[in-house]
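For consistency, the fold was encoded as tokens, which produced the following:
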Amino acid sequence: MDDGGLAGVLAEPVARIGLDVPLGWPDEFVAAVAEHHEGRPFGTAGMDRLTRRETDRWVHDHPEIRQLPLSVSTDRIAYPAMRMARILGEVVGEPIDRSGAGKFVEVYPAAALRVWGLRYRGYKRGADRQVLLDVAAALRRRCPWLAAPETTWDEVIRSDHAFDALVCALVARARHLDLCHPIPHHLRKAAAREGWIAVPTVGSLDSLLGGASGREQPRT
């Protein structure tokens, strides 16, 4: 999807939109780069503080999740993160709530699939198409209320990107229904700056049918 098409989706009047991209950068990384840019010392922050956000560490350390997200400051996911930051700035025109309390929800599909008890590895980039077929079929069985034309399901099982988009929509709905882990109180300020990964609670997949409908449905 080009920037114009993506901007159109982001501008739609819906309650939640799930985004499989970091919404911010680590505080220490931002501070160090700013200092370096002004000709001052880069600082002494350790590599973990420069490469990982508070949400990354929380997701990795949580006993129900134990997933390590990609680093937005050192991995290639920085490219879509910069693109998203730019387009959101153009569409919204003001700072967004990066903690996920507003319209835009940061999602880590692998973490969501794991807590929902579904296969979360091996389906990316055509590594094993059968794995993608199997996990999509398992998700469809778990969510018989998901209604879509077969052409849409064909796309979901053709591309891991389309499958992840579906997971993003489901997590956005979970966040809308307060079925995600809350942000620890002491991390809320950091989450507002760095972004926060919304991770649904165990068993929440079976509770997504109730609640919002129509124009309030979350979008990928």
